[in-house]
Amino acid sequence: MATTVLTSALFSSNIYAQTNANEQQQQWHELEPTVILISIDGARHDYLDRYAAPNLNRLANEGLRAEHLQPVFPTKTFPNHYSLVTGLHPQNHGITENSIYDPNFDAIFRMSITHEVTNPRWWGGEPIWVTAELQDTIAGTFFFPGSEAPIKDTQATYWFPYDGSVSNRERVDTVIEWLEKPQAERPQMITLYFSDVDSAGHGYGPGSREVAQALRNIDNEIGHLVTQLEQRGWLDSVDIMITADHGMARVDQTKHMVIDQAYDSERAERALYSRELAHIFAKDGEIANIVAELEANLPHAQVFTKETMPARFHYTDNDRIADVLAVANPGWIFAREFRLEDMQNDPEYFRPRGSHGYDNEHPDMQGIFIAHGPSFKQNAEVGPVKMVDLYNVVAHILALEPAANDGNPAVIPMLLNVEPEAE
């Protein structure tokens, strides 16, 4: 009986709230062109088909869904988020990895080093919120790489230092609060970031129950955003773009290569390692020796120099790109010698995990792309979209003059309700 009473009370409460919302809807102001750019970190392109995500699928079915969103190389979080908002490849914007060494000022950039993350010397190009602010359009960023630094002496009007303890619901509700501001204070360019799907993928692999639950949780937050927009009569006035920075590959930790046993580290001036990539800055005359040793000892990796780097990576013309780059094959990882024993003695050593950072053309590295709103085509499916192409799309919607970028303008009529320009 108690459950029935509670259910009835909740039903009555919901009716009352909906009635109030309907009455209030006529009082909400109209919105000028507005973009909410949402990143679901690590959301692989096929997750919408594999796992329950009714709200994301609703937006995809009513709006537009791409076959996949191709990340830039390397398929890491910071390079891709910053390519998304600048339209530049990492060699051109300078965020070449999550961890970076710059030989010109002999310094290290890592996500955990706050005074470097907030230092504009690392951040090249012009992120979309800077483009907006420089053209008298207000922007708000909720946890997006680059947003904590004054790039071109400019930041979004609304931004926050990253704090992973801030709930996803608070993030969504803050975006709604921004939209409720008076026109003179209201942002038209908004970014929003969720990390949960990526964390679950790393911990348990892309085929896990944990990923399914993380995606469902984020889907609920997207549903909350949609409901709040609907109640204010804004859902068909706001352009929502849902992206991922990269996909996720299943890895088995037994399939590892000990990277610092694969070559003589005395030949290196400096090296930065992740589970998928090894960036080695060689001492004078040692590049060929390092390459030879790595090729002999890393049977499940590819080894490149700047001269042999595939042109499609767009990963050569920057001093922050190392002399030698080793890229593990998908499904394989690099391990460090001093961590090997702890890794193998872990009771969950044999549990599947997930990794990214591999070749950006590999199917498992592809992310999702969904768009919904008045500017986008409706009930549409399109082919693959590249990460660097979306900056121009946002700039077009907001009538901004884009900064120089690597994007293909032909993507604009592919996604938006505009006619392609005559040749």
From TrEMBL:
Q: Which SUPFAM superfamilies match?
A: Alkaline phosphatase-like
A family per Pfam: Phosphodiest
Q: Which domain of life is it from?
A: Bacteria
Under CDD domains, the record lists:
Enpp
GO terms for molecular function, please?
hydrolase activity
Q: What is the name attached to this protein's record?
A: Alkaline phosphatase family protein
Organism whose genome encodes this protein: Aliidiomarina iranensis
